Amino acid sequence: MFLYIKFPDFIKPEIIPNLPFRWYGLMYIVAFSVAYFFYRKQVKERRFPMTDDDITSLFTWSILGLLLGARIFSTIVYETSSIYRREPWLIFWPFRDGRFTGLQGMSYHGGVIGCIAGFLLWSICKKRDVREIADMLAGAIPIGYTFGRIGNFINGELYGRATASPIGMIFPQAGQLSAKTAWVAEMAEKTGLTPVGPFQLVNLPRHPSQLYEAFFEGVFLWAVIWLVRKKSPFKGFCFGLYAVGYGLIRFIIEYFRQPDADIGYAIEFIPNNLPIAYAHPLTSISTGQLLSFFMALAGICIWIISKRYPNSRFSYFCEETVKEENHQKENRNALRNRRKRRR
Fold this sequence. Notes:
57% helix, two-stranded parallel ribbon, mainly alpha, elongated
């Protein structure tokens, strides 16, 4: 009995072999479509003044910002070579060595920054309620994000650390390790794997961290936001909840995910020489964890500002919303005065 799961042989990155159509790209299309569906559903629930053309326009701006932010941020933060500084046009060039490879390398946190910039610009230009739009996006984005991580799983990338757990999975691209190292030999023995060759190489099972993220950062976080969306104490609450929730969940899951070998850890409070495939000490902080910490902190700031300044001009960026709020306030005052006269 083998104590691991083998990555399915029938799963290939290409939808049709030898053609430039990949599952990862298709997952992006599915993600945007699912997010659009749930956003539109919320617009109808709230009777928010947006037409289908408005929603399409908003998503166009947001998706464009997301793709630009994700790609540029990835080349700045996660690319250690200087190739993109020497040849910046390669950032958006989908070919390598005469082969179509797509835009390999997208940063989630960069995508968030770009998406926020996109929908903020749209909201300012269209003079719409920024925080309510942000709340509705928070109720739609996580479930779409799920498909992005499924795309990573299909590509066999972003796998986790080695594990002897029965849910560990052998990813073909993870690379082989030498069983001459004590921890590798011990883990190979626990999982029933036999090292081969003169160097005693073995491909150890890994945490399927893409699936962890797909469920907890996607399905689970979306379900929480979806359940509380109608009971939000103030506008901006769901958006802040998304930032805090994602930041905390991603911070924890990063302990199961293997950091990029060429980057390692961003901070090591207690220096260690442990292999990144073997252990992620609690005192070592990866780049993803650092960015997730700041994302959660930003979510808390959103809560504080949104609750403290619920009706401020700053929070909405549009005169129409302020006028509407003043009109509603006048109606409430008039109703209160009529009740007093009846007494």
